């Protein structure tokens, strides 16, 4: 039997969001305890909150929207690379040294970012680890079709030309951001990563699960 790992960051009030994005709000609408006939709630948050998908349309006007991404692209074999020792943003050299097998098409990168999720309501951390331009180009050159990272963006904070997003999404690579990879070792897994069905969307929170027959 495979072992399953939930690598999703729970959506809750007070969680860090990208500067300028709306905060998460959870409002009770009806409560049985208050005399209502059932319990219902209203949820409000941005399309790139917590663990979420970036559709190519997020940065590329002609890129695919969320509904144009086939479910099969988000389910299947993946490789987790452990780059927690990387001294800075992830470069092509870091990826070359990470032991990523040839032929991998879904790559999740674990960095020291994952430790940040130990404090679920910690403020946004602008010094998070992301991809350097050379790392993004490495992903494209290797034919990887889905790439994930363990904080809110594949791009360094204050990247004025958004070169990483444009490199990845401009080459139709799907990005999964905000993964919690604490406790996940390097190696092969099965990824199950499904967003809501929102036609025309640029992004959406996902439930991301890894399944493994090892360790």
Question: What general form does the structure show?
Answer: globular
| Percentage beta strand | 25-35%
* Tally of strands: 10
Second CATH tier, the architecture: 3-Layer(bba) Sandwich
Distance between the termini: 12 Å
Number of helices: 3
Level-1 CATH class name: Alpha Beta
Can you walk through the features of this model?
The protein is built from three helices and ten strands; from the N terminus they run βββββαβαβαβββ. With 215 residues, it is mainly β. The chain has one domain: 3-Layer(bba) Sandwich (Glucose Oxidase, domain 1). The strands form two sheets. The protein has a seven-stranded mixed barrel. A two-stranded antiparallel ribbon has the order 2-3. The longest helix has 9 residues, at 133-141. The protein starts with a strand and ends with a strand.
What key attributes describe this structure?
7-stranded mixed β-barrel, two-stranded antiparallel sheet, 215 residues, mainly beta, Glucose Oxidase, domain 1
Question: How would you sum up this structure in a few lines?
Answer:
The chain is mainly β and 215 residues long. The protein has helices at residues 92-96, 133-141, 163-169; strands spanning 3-6, 25-30, 40-44, 52-54, 75-82, 106-110, 146-149, 174-177, 187-195, 203-212.
